Amino acid sequence: MTAQLAPEAPGAASLVQPVAATGWRLAVRRFRHNTLAVIGLAVIVVIVLFCFVGPFLYPTDQTHTQLSQANLGPSAAHWLGTDAVGHDVLGRLMFGGKVSLTVGIAAGILATVVGTLWGSVAGYVGGWVDAVMMRVVDAGIAIPALFILLVISAITTPGVGGLIVILGFVSWLVPSRLIRAETLTLKNRDYVLTLRAIGGSHARAIGRHLLPNSVSTIVVAATFQVADAILLVAYVSYLGLGVQAPATDWGGMLSAGLTAAYSGRWWLIVPPGLAVILVVCAFNAVGDGLRDAFDVRGR
Amino acid sequence: MSILTTTDLGIAFATESGTVDAVRGVSLHVEPGETLALVGESGSGKSTVALAAMGLLSGNATVSGSAVVDGHEVVDAAEPALRKLRGSTVSMVFQEPATALDPLTRVGAQIAEVIRNHGDVSASDAAARAVDLLDRVGIPSPAARAKAFPFQLSGGQRQRVVIAMAIANAPKLLIADEPTTALDVTVQAEILELLRRLAADTGTGVLLVTHNMGVVADFADRVAVMLQGEIVETGGVEDVLLRPRHEYTKRLLAAVPRLAVAPAGAAATGGSGPVASAGPVASAGPVASAGPVASSGDPDGRPGAAPVVDLRDVSVTFGRGARAVHALQGIDIAVHAGETVGLVGESGSGKSTAARVALGLIKPTSGSVHLFGSDLRTARGRDRRALRSGIGVVLQDPVASLDARMSVAECIAEPLAVHRRGMSSADRRKRIDEVLDAVRLPRTLASRAPRELSGGQRQRVSLARALVLSPRLLVADEPTSALDVSVQETVLEVLRELQDDLGFACLFVSHDLAVVQQFAERVVVMRQGVIEEQGTTDTTLLHPTTDYTRRLLAAVPVPDPVLQRRRRADRLATLAAVDA
Fold it and tell me: Is the pTM value of this prediction over 0.80?
């Protein structure tokens, strides 16, 4: 099994062009060749700018109800019309998007961080510690996230911070499994064994070898987690468990607009629905692109 | 008529970094009943030619020229036509028997499936023929074994099953790609014997792809030597191996480590007769004991000074209860300053486990490990770290040995970062340059990524890292097993020179007896966790006292077809005598 592993100077060097780029530069090049991923990245940038910079260019009042302006169709004054209490829908899309994106991204990152810590400790320590920690994960995956969310919302009404923590803690399980698998393969690499043999510490093995080598896995996992979390925010808000009025997010807007769907006021539903779909697809495309970019095997 | 003819075969792969010409202008032919060995180092394109003959190249390959199997053109052939050829007219044996079989299907059923794919055979007839085939490939109690799953068979038995599948439809051409590379030498000898017998009985033509000149000498009728995608020399096996014409073939053969063997008969008597040289370079073989400690040659191999590392009555058991695996059972190994001890044995013999115990990576279940005179069990904290700083390690896999995210300099400097925290970065850089010089790598490599280096260069970087703290003990676990022979030669040369200069002790783990014979002054032969015998390399490997060592030595194929034919006959006679 061994002789094929070593590309050697006289045989292979002249056949395979030396790749001068470093790992990161190579990854960036691969990512740029992935059209879908680049489009995804562009969509994310545009939507983030839309939500966070847009309100300065298109200021609207999102706190006071103006019933005189309720349920207007799209016009020059209100590009996407107004909702049932007179809020400008385009402005509300930005206003709600801020919450959706903030909660989604923060909860996705929180889930990845918790999952990374949990999974890497389980994988590196191994033995019964690993067994116990992974049974906890199995148990967590066995309980539907929706059930947990319903119970929590029955007890308390979360704000933005609370929502981040809750969503983060229902979605760290999958990344923890991923990172554990990665750690298991990395900790038995020859360079880690060599380090341990000459007396290197666990801290060094983790800090210098395991973490840097798992970064690509972690980044990819985080991207998918963010996409999932944004969807989850929309989901819980739609069920009325999200942030409370006058604050809103895209899921909340969908929920509020649903009653108007049959009376032809499409502008209440289509914009937030499209926004959620676009952002989730974009994050998934970027995640796919990153995964391919980092994957050095099979190429 | 030739069973396989390729004419001006060219194969190019489209890859991310451009088109790679893997094979250029290869013309060869295999006659019925003949074995053609396609030899070359990694990247020479030998496996690509074999895959092309099966029409199994990946989608990014473009093929020019022609490859005709039994009158059928394979290049540009449609998939249905290829499927009809594969498995019936031409079949293939791959390197790794573990992955060639479906783990969830009984082996009898897997063979029967191959039979039924190519003929209108009833299920019960196919099953009966599967049992016949298992019998033919030498599997004991074939009817019972046909019901076994692959994991219930040993590696050698699995490869026999793979061969049974390959010959199930009496193919006219058998392509064997490194069929014995993943196997132990004794198993390799059996599998080669089996392939030879099957080919002779049925008049099957064999295309043997291998890097092992010993296997070529043992098995092939003709040889084609490949270099960088082209055939540089072809001819009869004796012509090519004994009287090579091309410069590359000569270099390749010179680099093959040769096992020096006692003349037939002398091994049994244990006498100290003259050494039969197994080839032109064998004279350089077993005389390497001129190291700094010339006194280490006494029969016990234990001079007065305390050993650098001393394993006493070490046992290691993995798991417990009925599932316990006794990896080591009461072994004693000592390595003294300046000497090299070769640890040899087949897979599962416990040689790597013993090396890891010496390194402190595995805690012995019982027994003691003394490193530089201190007990590794009682040493704690700072003392333990200090002990560890005297060790250098080189492991087998050139890819996994270096962290791909670090530069060469960072890799080499890692032991300094662990044990010499106060060292200034200028001193550190100076030390890195010194060890790079020592392993004969250019200093400019320091800033490169390991990925940009060849396998041999990577192993030398590993060696540089092992030497950066000036260790008193170097543990090398199969350091050259993944390398081509020419590269292996350079790495071993560097290692020997450094040992002469620096005088470190070396525990050298290897499955390759020829390498150990050249490299070690003393040798420890292990088998199933027990030491079979140990002594000076000259005595133990030329005049072994145990049957096991004798069998091990007899199974090593030497790259000289004439000598190998005699050794094969001797080996079979010995085995027959044992059976009788």
Answer: no
